[in-house]
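User: Could you check the structure of this?
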Amino acid sequence: MKKYKKVLKISAFVIFLFIGILVAFPFVFKGKIVELIKQNLNNSLNATVDFKEADLSIFRGFPSATVVLNGTTVITSKPFANDTLFSADEIVLKIGIGELFKDASETVSIKNFKVDKAHLNILINKEAQANYDITKEKNSANLSENAPKANFEFSVDSYEITNSNMHYLDESTGIALEVNEINHSGKGDLSLENSKLSTKTDALISFSMDSVNYLNKNPVKLEALLGIDLKESTYSLLKNEGVINQLPLVFDGFVKINEDNQEVKISFETPSSDFKNFLAVLPEVYVKNIENVRTSGNFEIKGLIEGVVDETHIPKLNISLQSDDAMFQYPNLPKAVENISIKTFVVNKTGLVKDTYIEIQQLSFRIDEDVFNANAKFSNLIENPYINAHIDGRLNLKNLSNAYPLTTNTPLSGVLDANVTTAFDMRTVENGSYEKTHNTGTLVLSGFNYESEELAKPFKIDKAALTFNPKKVTLNSLNAKTGQTDIQANGSMTNLLGYLFNNEDVKGQFNMSSNVFAVNDFMVKEVEEKTNSREKQQTKQNEIPTKIKIPSFLDCTINAKAGTVFYDNITLKDVDGTLLIADEKATLVNLKSSLFDGRLALNGSVSTKTETPLFDMNLNIDAFNIASSFKELELFKALAPIANAMQGKLNAALSLSGNLNDDFTPNLASVSGNTLAEFLSTKINPENSKVLSLVTNQLNFIDFSNLNLDSLKTSLVFENGKVKVKPFKFNYQDIGITVEGGHGFDASMDYGITFDVPAKYLGKEAASLIASLKNEDTETLKVPVAASIKGSFSDPKVNTDLKQAVTNLTKELAAKQKNQLVNKGKDAVKDALGDFLGSEKDTIPNDSVTKKDPVKDTAGTLIKGLFGKKNKKKDSVTN
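Assistant: Sure, the predicted structure tokens are below.
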């Protein structure tokens, strides 16, 4: 019994010791294994491998050791210095415990690995250098003779790559490939010379070439059993089935890796010939629920890729897509697409990239009674693509939407008749030598109706007819309508291919006429939230549009005529002029129109290239109705606010520039320029103006309703939101009036008016003084009366110096009267002295009646008493 207890104690001790060793093991070997991995990788790569955190566990994958690397990165060296080739959130490696005792010179065997949230960025630059070419050469000068060898051996039981992405870009060819949401797993023992690897793959693939998208996040599934012969470096497809979108394909063949090249022979085909295979080729967004689609006929894909891959060769290609007399119909749509014939080939017979071509020998179908045919060939795809295509047939757009589930929410209508042939190479197009292209045929669209959030109203084309020739595309006719607007146009474009392939401007010259043209029909209100609800779309159409943008791709001349043009609340008649559009700028040349019972001539431009639209205009106005024009035009209201009290005609020449608001009305605070205006047969209704009413109330000698402003001319200068009036003069009866000052577009005022008023109008006291003087000078005496107008046009403040002017006048007249009396006194004294010194014999005839002047008499008596001779007394005698 004691013996058994002893054995149990020893066993327990061994177990606890073993557990203790397992617990302590990661702490002892963690640093070594981390350093071992780094050394092996960095010694074999021209790149820097690092990770934020590493962990080693025995229990997690016992009896294997588990190494967890977090935040792993591979940073490349020149010529891709500091680029991230690879990154992963987590890498989990399972390694035999015995591998932990090896040094960096020995081969490390990895049995299992898992990579989560990895990102692989592959780049080939324009010099054909690849950023993934980071493996060091065996005889690299960077390695010393004693440098440790870097060896990893994969003895894989299983592996996983989850939630990962790969991006491939070849700048030299313009090819871009993205594989997103990669979930890939495999099982097999790669340590064997001959083994089998079973794999499963799910991913989304996007592929583009020269900015043209051929695949856009198309789902791909692949289950493959690979035969691996490490001795011969051959990888065979033993049992493989994949799905692209919903198209199933089976594969067979092999890839053999040689020292200087790779040998490839892979064949593939659809496992069945059901025409649903064709629908499965199309992006899934366009072919929802194809399992319920009724089909007949066949569709087959077959391909063979065979040959050598090296620096100058690719495998030979022979891929075909064919269908004969097929049809399909969606269960919820009334029309079927019938008589479908497809013959398309992708071929390369030489193994040279430049000799690859795609040929669509036939593509035809019928919907109802409409038949559509097309064929095309695309050759020399890499160096200088050459395109030769022909389209012939009729397509009823309504029938198309009734036969195929289009993604647009807008119902289509209209008939397209096409008979067009085109042939050109891309180099010719890129060089702008469009005259060397070959385009012939006609294209007619009739009964077309289009609705979009980018249009304020539905756009309807009754008929549009195009003719193609090698030099240009001619618009023979266009009859269209949107909202109130009708359009008739013809003209030509000279670079349709440049617009389609080079993002060049549409260059052309057109003649356009309209009976009615409403600018608001083309203006769209910008909204922050987009919605597909019918209610909000209807609300949006009913709202007042607030923004318009001149298309950047237009470079054309339009000779335009319109019977009536509606712009905001303005109606123009008999519009005729030329519109030049280029570089997001519209320039009006010699535009003439009837407006406000007069004529308008306009030259100027509007640009929407900057965030804030700009305008620059010169206007000549002939006989505008003042009341109408100043009522409807905000700019005119701002230039002359009291014009709402005026009636008559206006001639003016305006030069102005500034910013536009989103609704294309001038931003008054930014407007600058000048104008010279002439008023004809003008009358004033002062009751329509607070300013004039206040002035009339304070100055009773003037009645603005009797003011005659005929042929009055005035000059205005406006800038920085201010209007400055050059001083001008006019008369009201015998009162001279001088006006000067200015106002702001914010309706603030600072004006001064001087009235040169005859003194007789300035009250009874002044009038009686003038009458008592009986002097011709006082009859024409005028006094300046100043009026100051401040405040705003809605709340004006009017002050005059009338009282002070009357006071000053009274003092002046009193002084004149005093001087006049003094002068009278002096004259009387003078007359009296004359009488005294004159002859005493002078007598006054008895029959003369003379009215004596009491002042003279008084003065004369006084003078005589002072200066006359005294009478002597006679002596008396006595006896």
